[in-house]
Structures are given as C-alpha cells and as structure tokens.
Amino acid sequence: MYILVILLPLLSFMLLGLGGRYFGKQGSIIIAVSCMLLTVICAFTIFYEVALCQSVCNIKILNWMNLGVLNLTWGFLFDTLTAVMLVVVTGISCLVHIYSVNYMNSDPHIIRFISYLSLFTFFMLMLITADNLFQMFLGWEGVGLASYLLINFWFTRMQANKSALKAIILNRVGDFGLALGIFAIFMVYKSLDFATIFALVPIAELTNDNIIFLGAEFNIVTLIGLLLFVGTIGKSAQLGLHMWLPDAMEGPTPVSALIHAATMVTAGVFVLLRTSPLISYSSTALVIITIFGALTALFAATVGVVQNDLKRVIAYSTCSQLGYMVFSSGLLNYNASLFHLTTHAFFKALLFLSAGVIIHAISEEQDMRKMGGLVKLLPYTYVIILIGSLALIGFPFLAGFYSKDVILEYAFSKSYYQWDAEFAYFLGTIAAFFTAFYSFRLIMLTFIFKTNSNITRLLNIEEAPLFLGLPLFILAFFSIFIGFILKDMFIGLGSPFFNNALFNLPLNNIYLELEFTPAMIKLIPVFFSLFGALFSVYAYSFLTKNLYLLKFQQLPKLYYFIMKKWYFDILVNSFIVPTFMNFAYNISFKYLDRGLFEMMGPSGFSKIFDHYSKKAVNLQTGFIYHYAFVIIIGLIMFLTLFLFSDLYEYIIFFLCLIYLPFLNIFKIQNNI
C-alpha cells in the first residue's frame, strides 16, 4: 500500500502516455480517474495508520549508488508530515482529474493533458515521501518539469510559451540555491539521509564551526538554512522570484488549481517543514525567512487589489497566503504553517475551479470588467465561490479562520521577544484587510454588478454540470469544516499528533503566552478582514462613479506603484535581465559558442585530426619488431609507474628521451 500510493500515478502516466491512442478517450479517462481514486484510498489509510495510530513507517527499497561515503538508497519516509501532505496532494489531484474530464472534454489532446496531471502528482509524491535529500531533489525537479509541460499545454499560444519559460527559468534560480544547500549539507555531514543529518545538526551547532562561501565566512547551519530557503523563494514564489506565479495562469484552469493549491507552490514550504530540525538552530536564517514571508504577504495582497483578470486575482492571493506560511515557519510555528497549508489547499482549489466554471460558461472571458450580473445565471457557482472567499478572508468558523488567525496570534505572542515577529504581525494584519477587499471585489464585479458582457455570451450560459459541480461541492464542504476538524490535532502544546515529525526547540515554545493573549487582540485580524470586505462592498456599490477619480486624481502615485507591482518587473527587466543577457552574449555566445567551440568544433577538430592523423600514419611501418618495441616500452612504463610511483617525473622524462629519436627512426625508414 505504501508503495502503491506513489506508483499508481506513475502507472497512469505511462499507460496514457504510451497507450492512450489505443485506450481511447473514454478508456484513458477511466484508467486515470481509477488510479487516482485508489491513490486517495491508500493515502487516507496511510493517514490513519501513521498519523492517528502513531506508527511511523520507513521503507528501504534498494540501493541507488554507493560512492565512498555517499550511500544513497531508494527509501520512503511516512511520518505525520508526509501523511498529511499525502491526503492533501492526492485529494486535490483526484478532484482536479475528475473536474478535467468535463472541463477539457472538447480539447482533442485531453489524454495528453490528463497524463501530465498524473506525472505531476507522481513527482509531488516522490518529493514528500523521500527519506533523503537527493531523492527529494529528484521529485523537486520533476515537479518543475511537469509544471512546464502543463503551463505550456497549449503550446501554439505564444503567451503560454513565454509563461512556461519564465516559470522554469525563475525556478532554476531557486533550484540552484537548493542544490548548493544539498552540496553544503553533504560536505559538512557526509550524508544526505534526513535521520543522519538531523542527528548531527546539534553537534555542529555546539562546535559553532564556520564555512567559507563566496569569499565570506558563514556559520554552517545559517548558510545551509539560507541556501535551502533560496529554493523556497523560487518554488513558493516569495518576493524576488515571484514573477512567474501570475503568468502561470496561461495554462488550463485545472492546471492553475493543481499548481496553486496543493502541489508545486507548497513544495518550498514543505522543504522548510521537513528541514525544521536544521533551520531551527539558525536565528539569522529564521529572521530572514520571517521578513521575506511578511513582505510577500503584504506585496501580493496589495497587487491583487488592482488586478482585473479573474485568475490573476486568485493567483496573487496564493502568493500572499504562501507568505503567511513562510513567516510562520520563520517564527518556528511549523504546525500552524502546515495547518494553513492544508486548509488553504481546499479553499484555493475551490476558488480556481469555480473561476474555471465562470470562464467556461462565458466563452473563455477572464476580464472581470466584462462580466457582471452572473448571480442569477450561475447561482450554484456564486454560492461556491462565496464560500471559498469567506474561507480565504478568515470569516469566523470557516477553514481560514482557524489556520490563518492562529499564525497572527502566534506572531503577536512572540512580538514581546522578537522584533521580526512584531514586523510579521503588523504586515500580516494589513494584508488581511487587502485580502478581504480583493476577494469581495471579485464577487462584486463578477456576480453583483450590472453585466458588462456581450449579450450573446449570456444567451446560452449554463450552470456547472455534474463532473464540474461535484468537485466544487466536496471542496466547499472541506472549506467550511476542515479547520474545525483539524484544529485540535494541529494546534496545541499537548497534542501528540505530529510525533516529532516537526521540530521545535524547547526554548521557542511559547504556547502558554498564546493561550493568555487577550481575546480582543485575537479578534483584530477578524475585524480587519470584515472591514475590508464591507469597504469593498460599499466602494463598488455606492462609489463606483468616483472610483476613477480615487485612482487617478487623489492617489495617482500609490495607485501606479501598486499597479506596476511595486516596480519589481521593471527593475528586473531593466537591470538584472540585461546584465545576464549581455554576459550571455559577450561571454557565452561571442567567445565560447562562436569562438572557442567553433575553433574546436566540427571544423576546428577536423583540421586538428587531419593534421595529426597524417603524422600518426608514419607510425605504421609494417615491421613487427617496431610494434614489439613500442609494446615493450609501454609495458615497462606502466610497471615502473606502478612499482616506483614516487619517481614518475623522472620516468616520463626518460621515456620522452627514448620516444623522440624513435619517431625520427620511423620517419627516416618511411622516407627510405
């Protein structure tokens, strides 16, 4: 069962990828959905055995490579962290598979699309079940590859090509940092196995050893933690490498739900959780992680306010919520980070799939300014997306209320001791206001406003059919109740749920302060969210005529600053990209590709080989005693080097003295 949960998506991909044309569309759909349903059953069974029954399972399949101290095995670790992620990944992926059956039904390449979904799921499961860093990195790179294939699924569209390339290039930057972190871990601890590394980290911390990196001296644990976090910045779209995430919307809507809800973007957060026994020992790395997460939460929330593309609003929402998870990890509140990751997966998948129903119903239109009046035409979708939005903003007793607010409560409790916790609490609370504002702005522009759409688009509009509506209903149910169900397991000092899967130093446990935080302080994020929602409804109901003046006359600089995404794209395209392009042209293309490689390439090598082959022909004299002499000289050389290795320099010099006149003899004889 533990192996089937990983191999079933791979089996689905191989069957559809190699034999999809023979199974046909219906047969391929049955195979893919059946494999995913079996995977979900296995995942829930593993969750019961591992998480609820406290039975950790570590399986070693076979040896991968043995090179000195580098001993790698194909091994799988099933602890509580893995069990939770299995349920999230397989559950969301299965619903996306079912949703795609109807959504992509008219696409002639639906078999290829579903096979890519299965491949994506397989690599994500490889990532979360690995018991060593090298195998985890294999899943990490595989997720990046599968995301490229899915974003670029409609490869005839130029914008899809650009978005896929942007995603994979920016992720390569993060992958390079993660690879350097893995190399540093192996250099210091001489192992890539999680159990060995985590056992040795406290010893390295006590010795307080430093390491030289790029000419500077760093603490070992701090450097490793920062390099691992670079991977998180790329994969989880934190500030600096976030630009690929909104453009990933060019793929089909099920791809957006799968990437943003439970798989690719949460891989970076998962790395922080998995390596918590390592990064917890570096206060410097934790402060940097907290600052990046808090800035990302605020940045994405503000940019989401001015977006007009339906899917881009939800994409920036994902980026903002990932910021909450990251700064929660930086504050050593790993269980709350995983809690929010779990709840966020359900209501974010709900929002994306609901957006897909809207886009599908009105002829693939995504601009919210061309929508409106859909509340009467799509009442079921309206209720569903309203539930997802309320869960996102943290409305009382929905999923986000339990997971997001406990992160802010913990940050406030820790603000008495750490300035970065106060910084994160302040920005996170402001981000809650903007989150509520753009969530209800989406609902007002899409459903409540008087329609701005072409009337012909509304004539044949239909509500979501069964295979689109059923996944939405399941996700809506979990978006309401999953927070209440899991809160006592995930949160609390006395909960044995994680069973050492997540690490925390005893000095950092401040759950008692969290319990004694005043109720009014805990309700501040709720008040900010409700105020943001009400202000959005008021602004887009009664101030619509003055919104233009509000944007362009009263707050022009602030509006343009947010509209231009804090000028990050301009800075990157103006300074960083030209620098690398000039470097690539002048060094790689000009001097290497068209210089050294062409000189030593086919034409260059042909001249070199032609010249020396003509000289080598002179060695073929046709006399046996000449060949015997060369063989004896070579044998003496190797035996001498083997027996008297310390004298190899003198031996080589002696052989050269013999070899040069030997060539002259051959040359003279050939001339004769």
Summarize the structure.
By secondary structure, this protein is mainly α. It is built from 28 helices and 4 strands.
Layout of helices and strands, plus pairs?
Elements: H1 4-52, E1 57-67, E2 70-78, H2 80-103, H3 110-129, H4 133-151, H5 158-189, H6 194-207, E3 210-213, E4 216-219, H7 220-235, H8 244-247, H9 253-261, H10 264-274, H11 276-279, H12 283-305, H13 310-330, H14 334-361, H15 379-393, H16 399-414, H17 419-448, H18 455-459, H19 466-490, H20 511-515, H21 519-522, H22 524-542, H23 547-554, H24 556-563, H25 568-599, H26 602-617, H27 624-643, H28 648-671
Antiparallel strand pairs: 1-2, 3-4
The major beta sheet can be summarized as: 2 strands, antiparallel
Number of strands: 4
Mean pLDDT: 83
Helix content: over 70%
Quaternary state reads single chain
| Largest sheet strand order | 1-2
Q: pLDDT under 50 segments (min length 5)?
A: 659-672
Into which percentage range does the β-strand content fall? Answer: under 5%
- Spatial shape: globular
Walk me through what this model shows.
The longest helix has 49 residues, at 4-52. The protein is built from 28 helices and 4 strands. Among the domains are: 335-558, no CATH class; 618-672. With 672 residues, it is mostly helical. 46% of the residues are buried. The termini are far apart. The strands form 2 sheets. It has a two-stranded antiparallel ribbon with strand order 1-2. It has a two-stranded antiparallel sheet with strand order 3-4. The chain has helices at 4-52, 80-103, 110-129, 133-151, 158-189, 194-207, 220-235, 244-247, 253-261, 264-274, 276-279, 283-305, 310-330, 334-361, 379-393, 399-414, 419-448, 455-459, 466-490, 511-515, 519-522, 524-542, 547-554, 556-563, 568-599, 602-617, 624-643, 648-671; strands at 57-67, 70-78, 210-213, 216-219. α12 (283-305) runs parallel beside α17.
